[in-house]
Amino acid sequence: MSKCRVRPQHTKELFGCAVDAPYKTDISKSTVFSVIIALFLSGCVSRLQSPDFLSNRLPFQARLTAPRKHTITRGQLVVHSDFRLSENHRFLDDLIARSDDLSRELSLPSSDEPIHVYLFEDAEQYAAFMNMRYHNAPQSRAIFLETDTRFQVYAHWGDRVAEDLRHEVMHGYIHSVVPNTPLWLDEGLAEYFEVPRGSNGLNRAHVDWLVSHLRTGDWRPDLARLERLTPPDGMTRADYAEAWAWVHYLLKSQDRTRRDLLGNYMRRLRQHGSSEPVSSMLTRIDQRASDELIMYIQRLAEDLGKTEQEIRLTQ
Questions:
Q1: Model pLDDT for residues 29-61, shown as the tens digit of each residue
Q2: Adjacency order of strands within the sheet including 151-156
Q3: How many C-beta atoms surround the C-beta of residue 59 within 10 A?
Q4: How far apart are CA 118 and CA 230, in angstroms?
Q5: β-strands 70-74, 2-6: how paired?
Q6: What is the mean pLDDT of residues 284-306?
Q7: What CA dihedral angle connects 51, 55, 59 and 61, to 10 degrees?
Q8: Cα 279 from Cα 225, distance rounded (Å)
Q9: Measuring CA to CA, how many Å separate 192 from each of 226, 241, 254?
Q10: Is residue 162 within 8 Å of 46, Cβ to Cβ?
Q11: Band of the pLDDT at 223, cuts 50, 70, 90?
Q12: d(Cα 213, Cα 238) in Å, to the nearest integer?
């Protein structure tokens, strides 16, 4: 069984033919020939004959293999790349620290289960590999894949690589400790931790979206609905924003009962495999939690506006 987590801003599916090739760079000619025959037999002949496929500037062998030339192991992370990357690069320091942040904020134990990160040198190499290897995966700058025995993150170097990896690697950290974390909380935590450290989990894009749609009446929070979502259903832009909002509201609450709620929930999942839904637990604390969340988001927007105004006045 395998699971897939991708960034929310991309939903268009890739096309192509999946090739289950081993992770190595020394594929023999006979292996390549066998793969080609398999593609023909599996109905992918039209893909191979297409001008786009034949004109692809990347060698066929390169499209079949993930980066493996250089490997850095730090904490749970095993980072594979075909270009040299400093072991002390600041974005690696940031990723390692995120594991400690998760454990601290939710009072969860840490894990030593490896998370393999395959970092391509550019978007072209990444897209070519994903087209060939994971043809059903949605298009995205980065992706988290889980099998019964392995956590994998695929991404490419670029201006937003740190943000992308914070999000996708967080899925690995979460699943290595609480493998049955529900979809909404898995994504809500990843959105919370994807912003730079020191931002207190504040995702400005989500605040803006939620406030805008509150004004137009297009959105109201409904945690019980979020809890019913499963991976095949997927999540919309609104779902990601609301999932982040509930996580931020609870983890930043001044009330300790609310602040500890998510950690208590995840520890029950880890220990017993199931738990009472967060929505039910929250209702016992406050039956007006949805209204409280709305006011919380509005206060965040007001505080952000005041901060920006103060910055403009000092310039």
A1: 444 444 444 443 444 433 333 333 333 455 555
A2: 2-6, 142-147, 151-156, 115-120, 77-81, 70-74
A3: 11
A4: 27
A5: unpaired
A6: 94
A7: -10
A8: 9
A9: 16, 10, 18
A10: no
A11: very high
A12: 9
Q: Is 25 helix (H, G, I), strand (E, B) or coil?
A: coil
pLDDT tens digits for 10-28? 322 222 233 333 333 333 4
CA distances from 13 to 6, 119, 139, 182 (A): 11, 21, 6, 23
Structural contact between residues 92 and 167, judged by C-beta atoms closer than 8 angstroms: no
Domains in the chain (CATH in brackets) are 1-44+55-177 (3.40.30), 181-315 (no CATH)
Distance between CA atoms of 173 and 177, rounded to whole angstroms? 7
Return the percent helix, strand and coil in the chain, to nearest 5: 55, 10, 35
Strand partners, 81: 70, 119
- Non-local (6+) Cβ contacts of 252 within 8 A are 200, 201, 259
The strand pairing partners of 119, in sequence order, are 81, 155
Dump pLDDT digits (tens) for 97-124.
999 999 999 999 999 999 999 999 999 9
Residue 257 tokens, joined: 């009962």
Separation of alpha carbons 6 and 36, rounded Å: 29
Neighbours of 23 (CB within 10 A): 14
Query: What gap in Å lies between CA 16 and CA 60, rounded to an integer?
Result: 13
**Tokens, residue 248:** 């931020």
Answer whether 250's CB lies under 8 Å from 221's CB: no
Taking the CA atoms of residue 303, residue 306, residue 312 and residue 315 in that order, the dihedral angle to the nearest 10 degrees is -80
What's the confidence (pLDDT) of residue 51? Answer: 35
CA–CA separation, 160 and 134 (whole Å)? 22
